[in-house]
Design goal:
- The chain has 9 helices and 14 strands.
- It has helices at 3-29, 71-101, 109-125, 130-191, 197-214, 268-303, 368-374, 394-434, 438-473, and strands at 39-45, 49-51, 54-56, 60-67, 217-220, 226-230, 233-237, 240-241, 244-247, 253-256, 307-310, 315-318, 381-385, 388-392.
Length: 474
């Protein structure tokens, strides 16, 4: 072995240790950079020189620079993050709907129903009292307005949720385009023998985001590119992107752009929002509509044809509908047998149009109509919504609806808490592999610094050896 081989060994060692310090510095600099994976210099023993008496090592060589990343931990985190995003979206939307009802409340629908039937009960005790009739009319108006307000607010939540879906789909399409561009750059870099660590980190960060939105799965390819599938539907594969769009009908759907075929089973935040507007809100609105329809039908069945008395002396007349059932509704209006469309009948212009007496009543003292209407408070009715048919009083039906919503909201909140914890734990586990610990990097720097100094010392020793050889030759 020559003196030159010793110098080469020292030089290679100094180069390798210098690069290791550089990479450790890079790690420290990016300790707080989102998506950054710590990097390491892979060193290996250089090929030895073979002599008759055996092989003699020639030092160290740099095999490459790799990033610390575990695909299994990435997959586990993305699955949990998608679940967390879905649960949070559901919890938020259901919480907003629950706040619309605000039960128990003195101004909610339960209170309005109770006040309406109590007003009929008061009128039955004094059927000629004009003030009591005015109260009945006013409470009917309040009840209709409460249903109108609830329906309008829930429709607004639905509208905002749909806007959120469109925003999410736009985000998915943008992320897919960026992933495709990075796929191209990574494949090009790796085909030229260059590491693509920083590009891969950028892509992984985008993959975290797109899978959180869609619950998608990442499929790596041998050439370094990846594909993303959501519910089996390809979103991006290598450099190919298939944009999505929202079909804003009822139910809303996620489709490929310019396609009429829905993509079913999308998860993540987008899937949760889709479920809210496609299932949750329509079910709740259908129950409110069933309640409004039952109210209008049952009240009108008694009031229409009942007897009114007005004037002095009282003159009998035939009452019309209490609630409007105009079909079709006035231009620009809503169907009257719905929570959004329920209105007082145009024929119910004033207190004299409120009937307390039954059909063919002999005099204004008859209270049979008012009593029958008051008894609707406890009368079971057949109510049908898209959730099914049931027989219940109006108050019990509404309370069951609110109770079911409260249960669903609590379950969504609990699920959000659980999923958030799972996602946090998965991220912690992932960061234990790919995250940067500044303390560890500083220790590595010291170790590589000592190794560099030792290699430099070897150069000094070799220099002394060469001087000795020169001196001996003189």
């Amino acid at each position: 072995m020559s003196i030159n081989s010793l110098l080469n060994t020292a030089r290679d060692a100094m180069t390798a240790q210098q690069l290791a310090v550089q990479i450790a510095s890079q790690n420290i600099a990016n300790a707080s950079t989102a998506g950054y994976s710590k990097q390491r210099v892979d060193m290996q023993a250089s090929l030895p020189t073979v002599f008759p008496y055996g092989s003699v090592g020639t030092g160290v060589s740099i095999a490459g620079i790799t990033r610390a990343r575990d695909s299994l931990l990435d997959s586990a985190y993305r699955n949990n993050a998608a679940g967390s995003a879905a649960a949070n979206a559901s919890s938020t939307a259901l919480g907003q709907i629950q706040s619309v009802f605000g039960e128990p409340s003195d101004t909610g629908l339960s209170a309005s129903l109770d006040a309406f039937f109590s007003a009929w009960s008061d009128l039955s005790a004094d059927p000629t009292n004009s003030a009591a009739k005015s109260v009945v009319r006013q409470q009917g108006q309040n009840l209709a307005s409460t249903l109108n307000r609830f329906a309008s607010q829930i429709n607004l939540i639905d509208q905002n949720n749909r806007e959120g879906m469109n925003s999410d789909v736009g985000q998915v399409n943008m992320l897919a385009k960026q992933i495709a561009e990075l796929n191209n750059k990574i494949v090009t870099a790796q085909s030229n023998g260059q590491p693509a660590n920083d590009l891969s980190d950028q892509r992984d960060l985008l993959l975290d985001q797109i899978t959180s939105l869609t619950g998608g799965q990442v499929v790596p390819h041998a050439n370094g590119s990846v594909a993303v599938y959501a519910a089996g539907a390809m979103i991006v594969d290598d450099t190919t992107v298939k944009p999505l769009e929202v079909y804003d009908g009822q139910p809303p759907e996620i489709r490929y752009a310019n396609s009429t075929t829905a993509i079913h089973g999308i998860g993540g935040a987008l899937g949760a929002k889709l479920d809210i507007s496609a299932t949750q809100i329509p079910t709740i609105m259908s129950k409110l509509d069933a309640l409004a329809s039952g109210l209008v039908t049952s009240v009108n069945a008694i009031h229409n044809g009942a007897t009114t008395f007005s004037g002095n002396p009282p003159v009998a007349g035939t009452a019309g509908n209490f609630f409007d059932v105009t079909v079709p509704p006035p231009a620009g209006g809503d169907p009257r047998l719905t929570a959004l469309g329920i209105r007082l009948s145009p024929t119910l212009a004033g207190a004299d149009d409120v009937a307390a007496s039954g059909p063919g009543a002999a005099g204004p003292g008859d209270n049979s109509a008012a009593l029958a209407l008051a008894n609707l408070r406890t009368a079971a009715q057949s109510l049908t919504s898209i959730a099914g048919s049931t027989t219940a009083t109006l108050s019990d039906y509404f309370n069951e609806t609110v109770g079911g919503l409260a249960t669903a909201t609590q379950q969504a909140q609990d699920e959000a808490t659980v999923q958030s914890t799972l996602a946090s734990n998965a991220d912690t586990t992932r960061q234990s592999v790919s995250g940067v610990s500044t303390d560890e990097e500083l220790i590595d720097i010291i170790q590589h610094q000592h190794a560099y100094q030792a290699a430099a010392r070897l150069v000094s020793v070799v220099n002394d050896m060469m001087e000795s050889l020169v001196t001996m030759g003189q």
